[in-house]
């Protein structure tokens, strides 16, 4: 991976990728990627929660043969990782989502197409690989239906409804920067070369203003049923933290849940997903798959998440780091490194496969075993 002067940089951890990305990214865009809402308590909580997870490795097991492969919603994957839906990836690289999707295909993990993608789902589908499509609830129901039809026609294998954004969180870094999308970067699925997200407003985020115009805050449980009736794609609900909501969603027939506080970018003070994951797992009682989103920064985090009850994790910001640092090659590096770290962690924990990982016992360092 090159540095700003074009010299090769040794990448030994995802933190190395982050440093390379920050060096070539404008301050305002970096804040848009890295920032959380409010005073960023929930952003910090994601890492604090993952940092507190310690596993009890098993010993005297033959780990000469080990595999991280699994199945997510009927599709084989090389490891229990999905790229998270992230908007406007052309902010950090000219190819944007297309480069990231190609890297996900090489890594054999699903790529989640954001509704606010800067590359169309049709173009991403042409690149091959397993695609999931993410949807926000829109005021214009006709546009929602059109997007469902386009995602199905493109061959997307799952639909991920994000439910924790009745309006965008107050992200103070963006407010202070008066963050505005640059010309040429737009949500291509919503039509038109420019929107209110491109119009600067003093003391405000133009992206937040745009989403407030188009997102429908009336989203409710009845809408979940409406959506299920209008698509054949398995439905995943993203943004679940309360076990009662998880149980109700599982009872409504969803195929998966993403335990997530939106990377600390929505309600500041919402719990870290890793901390509520065991209760969510218990609440759904095997009726759907459970994924963890927020703060994953290495293979050890993936191991800990699965040991706590996740079927897979969503990887967000590190994908953007790789994309910013070196385009498709950078995302390849991120996913290859994560796979290497996860394989290594599995072997050292005495795990031959994902079933072994899920049997590991976990200690929370904030509440040690007695």
From TrEMBL:
Pfam families associated with the record: FMN_dh
Keyword Flavoprotein on entry: yes
Keyword terms, alphabetized: Flavoprotein, FMN, Oxidoreductase
Reported cofactor(s): FMN
Domain of life: Bacteria
Residue span(s) of domain FMN hydroxy acid dehydrogenase: 6-367
Family: Belongs to the FMN-dependent alpha-hydroxy acid dehydrogenase family.
Protein name (record): Alpha-hydroxy-acid oxidizing enzyme
Organism expressing this protein natively: Actinoplanes palleronii
